[in-house]
Amino acid sequence: MRKFLVRFASLYLTAVYWSTAASASPPKHPHTRVANKAIVVKAGTPKALQAELHTLRGHVVLINFWATWCGPCVAEFPELVALSKKYAPRGLRLITVSVDQPSDKKQVIAFLEKHNAPMPAYIASTNDALQFLKPYDPKMDGAIPRTYVFDKTGRLRARIVGQIDPAKLESEIRDLLAAKSRLSKK
Fold this sequence. Notes:
Layout: H1 2-23, E1 41-44, H2 46-55, E2 60-66, H3 71-87, E3 92-98, H4 105-114, E4 121-124, H5 129-133, E5 146-150, E6 156-161, H6 166-185
Parallel strand pairs: 1-4, 2-3, 3-4
Antiparallel strand pairs: 2-5, 5-6
């Protein structure tokens, strides 16, 4: 009888442990403090991007236009993700916009997963990337990578055409985050 009770208790406790572990909320991502979830790439439009930027007021925001077929984009992407993760706790947010063909969405998702890219992520909703970008940036000539830096009020502070200089961009980010801190103390 005693063996039966020990086995029963052991099985019961194992079942309770696994059922609570399975129903527990997903672990928090250390940089965004939100639950980890699969990469989701939304169809991007200039209007959707403006709405996203508006919701991020109060944060310093980087918007990076890139493509999986663009060598400089691929080369700089890990640096952007590293900067995003390093400064996310202080208020930096990164939005990525792939100008790959909408039919290449699986390839874009695989690339973002490989680099553990933070959210949100968009893919141009049209096969004509320049048409997608022109309304957002009248100076857009089609060159990518292209990175925009916005301050906490949503004002464009820097436009980087071509591959980023990580040290220079980090300095800009630190300055904007520090300005945010001083403004919030008033």
